[in-house]
Write a structure and sequence with these properties.
The chain contains 1 helix and 23 strands. With 272 residues, the protein is mainly beta. The protein folds into 2 domains: 86 residues, Peptidoglycan hydrolase domains (Immunoglobulin-like, Sandwich); 168 residues, Glucose Permease (Domain IIA) (Distorted Sandwich), CATH 2.70.70.10. The radius of gyration is 19 Å and the shape is globular.
């Protein structure tokens, strides 16, 4: 394997610059970050997904930001950096984190065990949802310091092992914030609306692209107040809290996506 003539790769423990401040956490569902020294912007990939590369405050250095999936195994993980036609492998360690279990009772049993008609709908919807999650736009400085989209109690944190009506389902890939129906929901950061829809599980949903694989998702809305293609500013109202989709009561399910990977939204909240 050919090596770059000069490089420095530094593991970061935190990012504190104003628009990019967030908590680094090398665990499943967390975020890894590195500094790479190069006179030109490199490209980088992890698990065949393009990953975020943004300029550092120091000239000639670049921050490489990696979203780690909840399904990631503990131990060594590989990612690749390409520069001037040459690609090198680099490695980092994913540490163990144990997430709690949550047991919920869903009155609408079809939301737990969908019938065939429901499954057909879910399959069609999944194509649109997957496309939104993997969306990529080239933005030089994506905002990584996010505003809470709604005030309320954090009823279900990220990563919970979920059981609906005592049946095991996928872990919780967002942050649930309980708030009354009709409460305004704000964009967590400036971006472009890339998808809106009413989905079987997610209910009325909005996806906002912030650049370089950074997407925020807002689910279970009562009302959507934006359209695909709209440019929205941080704090702008995009919808209202509801209880559509698979829910036990009114709340906002808020997700943050990096390199097509659901990561813990609490890592990006401004107050952290």
């Amino acid at each position: 394997m050919l090596l770059f003539r000069t490089f420095v790769l530094i593991l970061l423990m935190s990012i504190q610059s104003p628009s990019q401040a967030f908590t680094v956490s090398n665990v499943p569902g967390g975020v890894a970050a590195f500094i790479f020294e190069s006179d030109q912007k490199p490209s980088a990939w992890y698990q065949e997904q393009k990953i975020m590369v943004i300029p550092d405050d120091v000239k000639g250095r670049w921050k490489i930001i990696i979203g780690i999936p909840l399904s990631a195994t503990v131990g060594q993980h590989e990612f690749q950096i390409s520069k001037e036609g040459l690609t090198n492998k680099y490695f980092f360690i994913v540490e163990e984190k144990e997430y709690k279990a949550q047991y919920l009772t869903i009155k609408n049993k079809r939301k737990v065990n969908p019938n065939q008609q429901d499954l057909d709908r879910i399959m069609k919807e999944s194509v649109k949802i997957k496309a939104a999650k993997k969306y990529w736009s080239d933005v030089t400085q994506p905002p990584l310091n996010l505003q809470l989209p709604v005030q309320g109690r954090f009823s279900s944190p990220f990563g919970l092992k979920r059981f609906f009506n005592n049946q095991a389902r996928n872990p919780h890939t967002g942050l649930d914030i309980t708030s009354p129906i009709g409460t305004p929901i704000a964009a967590a950061a400036t971006g472009t609306v890339i998808n809106t829809g009413s989905y079987f599980f997610n209910g009325k949903t909005v996806f906002i692209d912030h650049g370089q694989g950074m997407i925020t998702m807002y689910c279970h809305m009562n009302k959507i107040l934006v359209d695909k293609g709209d440019l929205v500013s941080i704090g702008e109202t995009i919808g209202k809290v509801g209880k559509t989709g698979r829910v036990t009561g009114p709340h906002l399910h808020w997700s943050v996506i990096l390199n097509n990977t659901m990561v813990d939204p609490s890592l990006f909240i401004k107050s952290n």
